[in-house]
């Protein structure tokens, strides 16, 4: 899938890495949640071994430099243009070429492939493959069955891509067949810069795992202006440990949240846990007419709060943004003695349903 290029940071990201070069590493601070580690992942990208313009080792350097924990290579099985090394008969080459770099740089790397067909059923990614070559079969369903037999996790890519669905986003009978046969475990609800609310709702209705990926073909620095805080879309995976097996188990269990621009998209339990682990109540000061609360946002995610409901006995700001790595003071006026101060908000950039924020309340002690 090709997308319009965003900010231009330069034509080369890490094309030359001499032994004396200094690689700049970025961290993205998103907290762990109780019982799990939060891993930042991108499960859809291309290299010179299909229609990408980047070598596998550069994909590793990009991911490490952008603060990711894990990536998957998903070069096309079919539909490869005759350029670069796209005609290499071994569909596992990108994974093989990157393994040494990934191990050296402590990046988890996953073998995968993109099974490309017209719509329906469209493009499907299979990851955690043992041998991508066995997916090279004429019948689409046979390829999916082989992927699943290898222990693969299968998800539908960019369901609302304009090349496949130019006017609206539909679920086809072929997708029902895949679902019924256990050949679809997730859907890409964000691809590159596009959010597909229909796919978000399908994941909720059909108990499918939500994922978001870059689908990068060119260097990621051509898509995102990192100097302005932009980042690739990624899947936050809540794993029991930082390992490939841990990621696979979490994906199968549906423990993910999508991180897209300044939005988090996912199931309520995980969004609420991320918010509560990101926010610290530093102090509460009681006064004559109310209280002052000092709040710290320890994460790199802004939280956009909007007051919910009306309580004539309680006054506080209608809208506020808890900026990343910052402190914020909230003044609460209590108009009636003895009232239990309960602040009610919608966190507008935490989507529990398509374009619908997370409702949240906090009781001031």
Q: What secondary-structure arrangement, pairings included, does this model have?
A:
Layout: E1 37-42, H1 56-65, E2 70-73, H2 93-104, E3 108-116, E4 123-127, H3 140-149, E5 153-156, H4 173-180, E6 186-191, E7 194-195, H5 197-206, E8 209-213, E9 234-239, H6 244-253, E10 256-260, E11 263-266, H7 268-278, E12 279-286, E13 290-297, E14 303-307, E15 314-315, E16 319-322, E17 326-334, E18 342-353, E19 356-363
Parallel strand pairs: 1-2, 2-3, 5-6, 6-8, 11-18
Antiparallel strand pairs: 1-9, 3-4, 4-5, 6-7, 9-10, 10-11, 12-13, 13-17, 14-16, 14-18, 15-17, 18-19
Helix pairs in contact: 1-2
> How helix-rich are the residues, as a percent range?
10-25%
Secondary-structure-derived class = alpha+beta
Q: Termini separation (Å)?
A: 51 Å
Number of helices: 7
Averaged pLDDT: 89
For the report, how would you describe the main beta sheet?
15 strands, mixed
């Amino acid at each position: 899938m090709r997308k319009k290029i965003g900010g231009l940071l330069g034509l080369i990201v890490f094309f030359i890495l001499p032994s004396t070069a200094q690689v700049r590493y970025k961290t993205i601070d998103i907290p762990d949640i109780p019982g799990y580690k939060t891993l930042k992942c991108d499960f859809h990208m291309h290299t010179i071994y299909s229609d990408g313009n980047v070598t596998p080792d550069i994909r590793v350097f990009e991911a490490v430099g952008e603060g990711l924990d894990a990536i998957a290579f998903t070069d096309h099985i079919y539909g490869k243009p005759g350029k670069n090394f796209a005609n290499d008969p071994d569909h596992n080459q990108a994974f093989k070429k990157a393994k040494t770099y990934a191990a050296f740089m402590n990046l988890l790397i996953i073998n995968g492939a993109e099974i490309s067909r017209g719509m329906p059923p469209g493009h499907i990614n299979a990851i955690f493959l043992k041998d991508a070559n066995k997916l090279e079969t004429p019948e689409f369903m046979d390829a999916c069955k082989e992927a699943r037999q290898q222990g693969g996790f299968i998800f539908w890519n960019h369901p609302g891509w304009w090349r496949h669905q130019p006017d609206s986003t539909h679920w086809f009978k072929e997708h029902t067949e895949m679902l019924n046969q256990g050949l679809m475990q997730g859907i890409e609800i964000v691809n590159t810069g596009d959010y597909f609310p229909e796919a978000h709702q399908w994941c909720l209705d059909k108990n499918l795992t939500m994922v978001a990926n870059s689908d990068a073909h060119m260097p990621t620095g051509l898509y995102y202006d990192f100097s302005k805080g932009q980042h690739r879309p990624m899947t936050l995976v809540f794993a029991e440990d930082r390992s490939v097996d841990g990621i696979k188990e979490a994906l199968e269990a549906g423990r993910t949240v999508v991180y897209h621009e300044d939005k988090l998209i996912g199931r309520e339990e995980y969004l609420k846990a991320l918010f509560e682990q990101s926010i610290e109540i530093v102090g509460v000061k009681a006064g004559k007419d109310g209280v002052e609360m000092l709040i710290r946002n320890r994460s790199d995610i802004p939280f956009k709060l909007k007051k919910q409901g009306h309580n004539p006995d309680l006054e506080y700001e209608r809208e506020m943004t808890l900026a990343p790595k910052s402190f914020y003071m909230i003044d609460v006026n209590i108009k009636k003695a003895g009232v239990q101060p309960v602040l009610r908000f919608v966190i507008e950039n935490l989507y529990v349903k398509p374009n619908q924020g997370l409702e949240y309340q906090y009781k001031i002690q």
